[in-house]
Write a structure and sequence with these properties.
The structure holds 2 protein chains of 2 kinds. Chain A is mainly α. Chain A is built from 11 helices and 2 strands. In chain A, helix 2 packs across helix 3 and helix 10 packs antiparallel against helix 11. Chain A starts with a helix and ends with a helix. Chain B has 2 domains: 37 residues; 199 residues, Cytochrome Bc1 Complex, Chain C. Helix content of chain B is 70%, strand content 0%. The longest helix of chain B is centred in the last third of the chain and has 33 residues.
Chain lengths: 289, 266
């Protein structure tokens, strides 16, 4: 198609004055070009005859460049070819069910559905902000430290990790000195927690998706949620003074562990239940003796 | 033989020999005019592809194929949390832009208190709809953060972070952190008592980072104690740097979801 649309540089006018012959010849030669037979000179220097710009020996033609390409770009090109072929093969082999009656079209069905959901959510936000407006706290006063300093609620867990000084170990080898100051310890705790969450996909692989399929990881998640909540209690030590600090720390660290075990046990039990309903027929056929 | 180029593609002649209505003629004139300048034809194929993409009919999803809809329909609201946080982000951006008209990040003395504080008081007391505007901005920020947290939990408990999607999980960690930084910088802007002392803790946290702490404190907070430059920097972070970074990352995040497809419940 592009061949036909391309304006001829050698002048179609001449061909017409000669009568149809020459134009036939050019056409057939252009057909032959792929076979490497009689070729017209191309502007890129390839093809037979006298090229418009005689190529320097050192200057490769575009085709040659493509063929000669080595190293990383060549590898990339080859890989793309391979992966495209693989993709195609997999598609042809797959038994993937294409539906006969296709899904909702994006427009208008899906789009209108999404828009109405969006408007619903925005309306909810408008309603909440009209019903519960924020209050205006007193202006900043650097000379008086308030009794309770708190960030917004979503930073409570992080703020709690800054209050771990009672469990910052003092090492006997350092003569009772702490390895890092309490402040550094708190910041490091934040970094450790976030990095652990970040590497989860590299620790837990496989195709399991449902919590019951992996009771350990699901229970870990539940424990993590509880840990985030109990951590939020640490900076409130002053507010909830009736709980002694030691007990508060025990609660903050052992409640998540307890929840972990409870969640683990529950999920295991649920899995047994699922297995039982899957295997019920087996049990019915051969009742255990 | 003249050197003048022959018009091999005489579009005008072609148009005249066709019997075109004025609308068709006008359309073609405009199209040719634009095409001569911008080579629209080169992009026509792209447009065509996009047209078919938009009207693409999806193949059966996993849940549909194995007829799991009856088991999983109650999960689906959890799958809208990402979109919900994006919507809240857009609302916060719009309201924030309007709030920005009436706010100056200055700790200099204003009429009553600092200028920043006075501006927020002005917004809440004198400006038409100002009270509602600030409320909406604050609530959309809260909702965005909450939705992002719940979104992360959903992704965790449905195992959606697994194998082909690790990069998006990492990107999500970055995004949730930036969301919290967004909230924190915004928390400081009214320059109230809470803002001030939250800022104090931020400075101390920055100073506690090993090796680079002082450098970070100076870069982000403009010094080791809170002053005018702190508020200025929080403001620039909140309205200039973070919006660009977070918007770009959200686009990337959603783009990757689009490419990889949604991880459905199994």
């Amino acid at each position: 198609m592009s061949e036909e649309n391309q304006p001829r540089t050698d002048g179609g006018e001449e061909a017409q004055t000669d009568g149809g012959k020459r134009s036939d010849a050019t056409r057939s030669s252009s057909d032959l070009r792929s076979d490497g037979g009689e070729e017209e000179p191309q502007t890129d220097g390839s093809g037979g005859g006298v090229p418009a710009v005689p190529p320097d020996d050192e200057t490769p033609t575009w085709r040659e460049r493509k063929e000669r390409t080595q190293g990383l770009s060549r590898l990339t090109y080859e890989y793309f070819e391979r992966s495209r072929r693989e993709d195609q093969d997999l598609r042809q082999e797959s038994t993937y069910v294409e539906r006969d009656v296709l899904a909702f079209p994006t427009w208008p069905h899906e789009t209108i559905r999404n828009l109405s959901l969006t408007f619903f959510f925005v309306g909810m936000m408008l309603f909440v902000s009209a019903a519960l407006p924020p209050h205006m706290p007193s202006p900043a006063d650097p000379s008086s430290t308030p009794e309770v300093i708190l960030p917004d609620w979503y930073l409570y867990w992080s703020f709690g990790l800054l209050h771990l000084d009672p469990i910052n170990p003092d090492l006997a080898i350092l003569g009772g000195e702490k390895l890092m100051s309490d402040r550094v310890y708190g910041v490091m705790a934040n970094i450790v927690v976030v990095s652990f969450i970040a590497i989860v996909p590299f620790l837990n692989k496989g195709s399991a998706r449902r919590p019951v399929e992996e009771p350990f990881w699901a229970a870990l998640g539940v424990g993590g949620i509880v840990f985030a909540i109990t951590l939020a209690a640490l900076p409130l030590q002053d507010l909830i003074g009736f709980i002694p600090t030691e007990l508060l720390f025990n609660l903050a660290f052992f409640l998540p562990v307890i929840t972990f075990f409870i969640a683990y046990a529950m999920l295991k039990t649920m899995r047994e239940g699922y297995m039982y309903s899957l295997n019920r027929r087996y049990y019915r056929l051969r009742p255990p003796r | 033989m003249s050197l003048e180029r022959k018009d091999e593609h005489d579009h005008r002649g072609w148009m005249q020999e066709r019997d075109l209505s004025p609308i068709e003629q006008g359309y073609l004139m405009a199209l040719i005019w634009l095409d001569k300048r911008f080579r629209i034809v080169d992009y026509l194929e792209l447009l065509e592809t996009m047209y078919y993409r938009v009207n693409l009919q999806m193949p059966k999803s996993h849940t549909e194929q194995y007829n799991l809809d009856n088991k999983f329909w109650y999960w689906y609201p959890l799958y809208s949390l990402g979109a919900f946080s994006t919507i809240a982000y857009i609302v916060a951006a719009l309201t924030g832009a309007i709030l920005g008209f009436y706010y100056a990040p200055s700790t200099a003395d204003g009429m009553e208190e600092t200028i920043a504080y006075d501006d927020v008081v002005f917004i809440m007391q004198d400006l038409n709809f100002g009270y509602f505007l600030r409320s909406l901005h604050r609530w959309s920020a809260q909702i965005m953060t909450a939705a992002v947290f719940l979104h992360m939990l959903r992704v965790y408990f449905t195992g959606a972070y697994k194998e082909p999607r690790e990069v998006n999980w990492l990107l999500g960690i970055v995004l949730i952190s930036l969301t919290m930084v967004f909230g924190y910088t915004g928390y400081l802007l009214p320059w109230s008592q809470l803002s001030y002392w939250a800022g104090q803790i931020g400075v101390e946290m920055a100073l506690s980072i090993p090796f680079v702490g002082e450098w970070v404190a100076q870069l982000v907070f403009g010094g080791f104690s809170l002053d005018a430059s702190t508020l200025q920097r929080m403001y620039i972070l909140h309205v200039f740097i973070l919006p660009f970074v977070v918007t770009a990352l959200i686009a990337l995040h959603i783009g990757i979801v689009w490419m990889q497809g949604i991880a459905e419940p199994h």
